[in-house]
Amino acid sequence: MGPIDVMTLGSAHQNHRVVNNWNELDEEVVMAGTVQTFKEKFDKRYRDGTP
Predict the structure, then answer these.
(1) What is the value of pTM for the model shown?
(2) Which of 9, 20, 23, 38 is the Cys-Cys partner for 32 at CB 3.0 to 4.6 Å?
């Protein structure tokens, strides 16, 4: 096994955090039909900063 590429390791960690955040969203927000609808639903649901 070769040396671990720090950039690859950091990138994988970042992807893991993004996926976890995505999975925590309400289904109604995730299933929005358009980007604009997603933004509106996201803002309405998470406007105060707490899920």
Answers:
(1) 0.58
(2) 38
What tokens appear for 36 in the block? 């604009």
The angle formed by the CA atoms of residues 26, 32 and 33, to the nearest 5 degrees, is 165
Written as one letter, the residue type at 12 is A
Q: How many CB atoms lie within 10 A of CB 32?
A: 14
Residues 6+ apart with CB under 8 A from 42: 25, 29
Q: Which of 26, 29, 23, 27 is nearest to 41 (CA)?
A: 29
Contact 28, 41 (CB under 8 A): yes
